[in-house]
Amino acid sequence: MPLVNEMTSAMQDLVVSGDADQLGWRWGAHGIFSVASFYDSLVEKYNLIQSELVSFAPLVIWELSIPLKIRIFLWCVCWGRLQTLDRLKKFQLVDDVRCVWCKRGVESVQHLFFQCPVIYDVWRRLSGRKWGEVLMLLDTNDLTGLVKNWPHVSSDLLGKNLWRFVPAAVVWSI
Ligand SMILES: [Zn+2]
């Protein structure tokens, strides 16, 4: 009963006209949907600060001018949705979970991009630094941090603009 009273109270200020009902997007100008208005409504709803959203690595991925399929792939990696052998084993789709590159570690996102000696040699050669130094500069051990902090590693070898694409190119190639 309190709910009915609350609803009745909320409706007291409504003015009902004889016009036909219409659907409208309440957050958009003139009731029209747009992605920007949807984004703004989410930010407002969840009280997210703009700077926090911009620094959120998966959003950084969407800002890169790379093919859509690579963006989606990186997005899946960042959210832990890559079908690595450790995940496939949970569904009993594979028996052997050894990394295809080094044949020693268990193939997981963490191993593939940060712990596999074959792959960190790739990162080391690209950056011109020891892997430990790269990790310190990245201040992370996950792909989200890698994408976000990669520009801090160095851009001397390729130039700033091209350097931003390196993580995407490497992760896609792995
Ligand atoms: Zn490995």
Task: Report how far apart the termini are.
Answer: 60 Å
Bound ligands, named by name, code or SMILES: zinc ion
Shape: elongated
- Main sheet specs: none
Order of helices and strands: HHHHHHHHHHHH
Helix and strand content put the structural class at mainly alpha
Strand runs, count: 0
Helix content: 40-55%
Description:
- It comes from Thalictrum thalictroides (Rue-anemone).
- Residues 33-123 form the Reverse transcriptase zinc-binding domain.
- This is Reverse transcriptase zinc-binding domain-containing protein.
- It is a single chain.
- α4 (57-63) packs across α10.
- With 174 residues, this protein is mainly alpha-helical.
- 55% of the residues lie in helices and 0% in strands.
- The radius of gyration is 24 Å and the shape is elongated.
- The chain has helices spanning 2-11, 35-45, 50-54, 57-63, 68-78, 85-90, 109-115, 117-127, 131-138, 143-149, 160-163, 166-173.
- The longest helix is centred in the N-terminal third of the chain and has 11 residues, at 35-45.
- The site of zinc ion has 7 residues, from loops.
